[in-house]
Write a structure and sequence with these properties.
By secondary structure, this protein is an alpha+beta fold. Helix content is about 20%, strand content about 20%. Strands 1-3-2 form a three-stranded antiparallel β-sheet, with no helix packed on it. A three-stranded antiparallel β-sheet has the order 4-5-6, with no helix packed on it. The longest helix has 11 residues, at about 40-50.
Length: about 90
């Protein structure tokens, strides 16, 4: 595969995940509000893909586009030797 690994994270503004992403220097996009607005089409794709529509909720949510550097599979006791799924931001499997 070897393509960039990206993901969408949409935590509520009052949550631990939001604070952790902010502490790492990630820049959120808004679903509406004072931050740079998320493009309507991208938000619509997210809702269609996940079934989660934060725009309709009273709690403010922020949208982050993440680029994981390393992802590993985990199986508790016997870790597989080839458990790296993403390395240096590139998918391996």
């Amino acid at each position: 595969m070897n393509e960039p690994a990206h993901g969408d994270v949409v935590p509520p503004c009052s949550g631990r995940t939001y604070r952790a992403l902010e502490a790492l220097g990630e820049k959120p996009r808004a679903w509406g509000g004072r931050l740079a607005a998320l493009p309507q089409q991208r938000g619509d794709r997210f809702v269609a893909h996940t079934g989660f529509a934060p725009r309709t909720l009273a709690t403010p949510y922020r949208w982050f586009r993440t680029s994981p550097r390393r992802i590993q599979a985990r199986r508790e006791v016997n870790e597989p030797p080839d458990r790296e799924l993403t390395r240096d931001g590139r998918r391996l499997v």
